[in-house]
């Protein structure tokens, strides 16, 4: 009888050793957690944004949320293809994450965008680290992550365009926390 709690299969994709395939999939699990967190954070900002730019930011976030949800599904399906069961459970996400909860609640559009800019910095940097980690083992997964980074960087540019002056200086430049970024952008 099969064990119902087993998270790995004794196989992976053709051309990779099971060990390498499972290693790649385990790297993807942290990206899965990060993107699940991002989609929830973006929806939180979508619900809590106020002020003169409300509608433009509110509507700008929805397509981002949908694409990130698609990234989550893509990562989970890649993991399953590699013989590792993905976890989308909230408890697993909270236990495994290396970042704090998003710290901005009801706030203006520029406050949320400044805070989200820092969130995107973390997501993109960690995705790039994952690209480096899986690149030598699995170019298929590497390509998938590269495509995701391309889109995440585009979203970040959309947000930054609301926050920069004509010289390219961000209103929250140098902020180290989401709350500091929000406060700097509000001034």
TrEMBL record:
Q: Name one GO molecular function term.
A: ferric iron binding
Domain Ferritin/DPS positions: 27-165
Question: Domain of life, per the record?
Answer: Bacteria
Q: Which Pfam families does its entry note?
A: Ferritin
What SUPFAM superfamilies does the annotation carry? Ferritin-like
Identify its protein family: Belongs to the Dps family.
PANTHER family given in the database record:
DNA PROTECTION DURING STARVATION PROTEIN (PTHR42932:SF3), GENERAL STRESS PROTEIN 20U (PTHR42932)
| Stated name of the protein | DNA starvation/stationary phase protection protein
């Amino acid at each position: 009888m099969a064990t119902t709690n087993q998270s790995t299969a004794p196989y992976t994709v053709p051309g990779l050793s099971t060990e390498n395939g499972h290693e790649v999939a385990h790297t993807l699990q942290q990206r899965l957690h990060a993107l699940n967190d991002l989609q929830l954070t973006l929806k939180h900002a979508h619900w809590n944004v106020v002020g003169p730019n409300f509608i433009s930011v509110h509507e700008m976030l929805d397509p981002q949320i949908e694409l990130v949800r698609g990234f989550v599904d893509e990562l989970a399906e890649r993991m399953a293809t590699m013989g590792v069961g993905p976890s989308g459970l909230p408890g697993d996400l909270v236990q495994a994450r290396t970042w704090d909860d998003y710290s901005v609640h009801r706030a203006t559009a520029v406050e949320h965008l400044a805070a989200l800019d820092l969130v995107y910095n973390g997501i993109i940097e960690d995705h790039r680290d994952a690209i480096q980690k899986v690149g030598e083992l699995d170019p298929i997964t590497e390509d998938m992550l590269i495509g995701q980074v391309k889109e995440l960087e585009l979203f970040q540019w959309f947000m930054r365009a609301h926050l920069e002056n004509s010289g390219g200086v961000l209103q929250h430049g140098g902020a180290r926390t989401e709350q500091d970024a929000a406060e700097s952008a509000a001034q």
